[in-house]
Structures are given as C-alpha cells and as structure tokens.
Specification:
alpha/beta, Rossmann fold, 2 domains, two-stranded antiparallel ribbon, 11 strands, Site-specific DNA-methyltransferase, SAM-dependent_MTases_sf
C-alpha cells in the first residue's frame, strides 16, 4: 500500500516569515526545474483551503505560470484546473503534474544521451528556422549560443524527439529548456534579455551542456521518485488564451491566481529562448499570435484595446490622469492598455463568478503600477469592480512592495496585494 507524501514534506516543513515572500522555493522539489519568479508561495494554496467555508474538491488557476497552484492542490488532495497561454510553461506544468513509470525514465535518459552522439542534424537549416541572433555568428558580432553548444543542444533535442514515451519526451524537453539560459551568452532579468558580462571572452564548453542537462534530469527523476505519491493525481490543463478558455471551465469550489501585472512587461519575452529553441515558435507570425493571446498588460504588440469598465471611481480618475500625460509617456498606447487590462480581467472574473459554488472564494495576488508619476492602484480598482459584480470582500492584505521601473525612480514603491472575494 502506497502512503501519500504530505504537503509539509514537499515544502520541507518550512515556516514563512510573512505571506509576501517565497524565499527558498528553488529548493522545493519540482519548483527547481526552471527558475521562475513566483508571485506567491505554495503555502497560500493551503491557507486558501483552510479558510474556505465550503468543502473544496476542485480549484481553478487561469494563469498557471510554473504550476504552483496546481501542484500544491495535488499534494492537498484537490483536483486542479489550470490555464496557461505560454506553451512552454504549459508543458512544464504538465511535466510536474504527470504520473511516471520509474522503470522507463532512467532507461530513456540513457537512450537520449547515447543517441545524441550518433544522430545527424543540419545546424545551418536549424539556424535558418531561428531568429538570426540565436546561433553564432549571430548579428553584428552578437549571438545567444556558441556554435558548439548549439550543436549539442539540438542533437539532444533531436534524440528526445525520437522517444516513444510521450510523458518522458515532454519531461526531458522542458528540462532541456530549463537549462538553456545557463548555457547561453545571455541572462534574463526585469529589463528582459541582456548579454552576460564579458560573454565573448568566456565561450561555453559544449561538455557543460551534457553535464547540466544530465544533472537536471537526474534531479527531476529524484523529485518524481520521492514525491510522486501525491494525495490527488488528477488534473485538467488547458493551453491557450485564458480570456477565451475560461468559458471551458466548469464548477469551481476555489479560485487562486496571480495575473500578469499591468507594468508593460511582456512575460513572453522571458521565455523567448525556450519557445524558439524547443520549436514552439516557428516564425514571426507564431510569436505575434502568442503575444496577442496574452492579457493586455503590455504594449509590445499592436492590438485593438477594449474600453475600460465604468464601475470604478478609482479607475475613472486613473484613466483621466493617464490621458493627461499620454504625450509624455514612452508609449502612447499605455493608457489604452491599462483600461483594457481591467476590462479583460474583470470580464474573466465575472465569468468565473457564474461558475463558482455558493460561498466559495476567489483569491488573487495583484500588483500596482506607475507611469509618468501616475500611480495605478490595481487592487483598489479590482475591489471596486468586484463589488459591482456582487462579490463581498473577505480580505485585502498587503503582500510586499515591488521596485518601480528605472524611469519611475527604481524605488520599492509599488504594492502587491492579496485580495480574497466571496461569492
């Protein structure tokens, strides 16, 4: 008889100093597979369950991210439904939630490594399918991957794609994606993608590709071996535009999520390397389509913006202030983006409300923004709009402060807030 692994065992029995921290998550099984800046810790999911006034059989997260909500739900015996627009992240979530046959994992890893040394690839054809900066010689003396590393990456990927076991194939692919930035000449931070210091004098040894990949897979197999017997192994995962796929969800006992913040940062850019190298994006049209399927939280793609909802005095005031400085903003679409952000998000919340059980709760962690000195109080606006939909406000709790952009002074003056609404 198998004994289920507990939630506490998974999080290493840690005690958070306060709710607005997720320090140490990289040491938690499954969460180390790909570095991810989490909006909240898994403990929030347990707290939401303990504070629910009804029995919780299922939980919805319409912005799946790295799968924190879904994975925590499995450990806590709740069936998760998750929506994620980014196909790489969706496959990463799937890899974490799956049930594996241990006997095939090590065997398939050995097969991939062995085959990767004999398989033939045409790096020139591969180079043509990628943006020109990806593989040496790149553009104007800059490239993301040294040629020797690129060859090893794509040989390993080709070997993975030959596997018959679809679960193992997906697992190995997302783990290869998880090491790409480490073996590249770039780094990802709040400003997007930048070249590492002195990168052109520090060529990456192709042996490092094999070493880091094998360590990553070995660690993942260890995580799976130790924590596979979760209380629930069921899940539902939808890949695509959350604004549309929300209609495909059914009865909801609990909803927990953190949407992209309206800070003009396109989160697609963070995973651009993985999306192209692993074959999720084949051309510029694919890239543009993915950006258009994301929530209107950025201005990195041309789109038709919905008008802002009219049920919030705080939003009305914010929109007037943004309109007054429109000509001074670094992008004149920012006011339209902010208005559309609230239209899209509250429309999703309204759809969720109709599917929620009586007395069920919706938990969301949101972040404020600032443009040209105009503060966008996201939490305040969403609370006003939610009251207009008929929700009662259970909790509004300060989470932490975020650093504003360099243009806004770079100070920690933007609030992140936990909002709990009751149906």
């Amino acid at each position: 008889m198998n004994i289920n692994v507990t939630f506490e065992e998974w999080i290493n029995n840690r005690n958070l100093p306060y709710w607005g921290t997720n320090f140490g998550t990289e040491a938690i099984a499954f969460q180390r597979w790909r570095h991810f800046k989490e909006a909240y810790a898994p403990e929030i999911v347990k707290r939401a369950l303990s504070e629910s006034e009804i029995p919780v059989k299922n939980c919805l997260d319409p912005f799946g991210g790295s799968g924190t909500t879904a994975l925590a739900c499995q450990f806590l015996g709740v069936v998760p439904t998750t929506i994620e627009v980014n196909p790489y992240l969706s496959d990463l979530i799937k890899a974490k939630l799956e049930f594996y046959d241990f006997s095939t994992l090590s065997k398939d890893l050995g097969a991939v490594i062995k085959r990767s040394y004999s398989i033939t690839i045409n790096i020139d054809i591969i180079r043509e399918s990628l943006p020109p900066t990806f593989i040496e010689p790149g553009v104007k003396g800059r490239w993301i991957f040294d040629i020797e590393c690129a060859i090893r990456i794509f040989k390993i990927l080709a070997a993975i794609n030959e596997l018959d076991n679809s679960k193992n194939k997906n697992l190995f692919k997302v783990l290869l994606g998880g090491i790409l930035i480490d073996i590249s000449n770039v780094k990802i931070d709040g400003k997007g993608r930048r070249y590492k210091n002195n990168w052109n004098n520090n060529r990456v040894d192709p042996v490092k590709v094999d070493k880091i990949f094998q360590v990553s897979v070995t660690n993942a197999i260890s995580d799976i071996t130790m924590y596979q017997q979760r209380k629930s192994l069921d899940y539902k995962l939808l890949t695509g535009d959350s604004r549309k796929l929300i209609n495909e969800t059914s009865d909801i006992d609990l909803c927990i999520f953190s949407p992209p913040y309206p800070n003009s940062f396109d989160y697609t850019d963070v995973y651009n390397v993985e999306l192209w190298v692993l074959g999720y994006l084949k051309n510029a049209f694919d890239s543009s389509k993915l950006r258009k399927n994301t929530l209107s939280s950025h201005v990195q793609t041309k789109r038709v913006y919905s008008l802002p909802p009219k049920a919030s005095k705080s939003l009305d005031l914010t929109m007037k202030e943004l309109e007054n400085v429109r000509n001074n903003l670094w992008n004149k679409d920012i006011p339209s983006m902010v208005g559309a952000y609230f239209h899209e998000l509250i429309s999703m919340i309204e759809t969720i409300k109709y599917k929620m059980s009586t007395n069920s709760k919706l938990w969301m962690i949101v972040g404020d923004s600032k443009y040209q000195g105009i503060y966008v109080p996201v939490a305040t606006i969403l609370v006003e709009l939610a009251i207009g939909l008929g929700f009662s406000v259970d909790t509004v709790e300060a989470f932490r402060s975020m650093r504003s952009s360099v243009q806004q002074g770079g100070r920690k003056d933007l609030k992140e807030t936990l909002i709990v609404l009751k149906n």
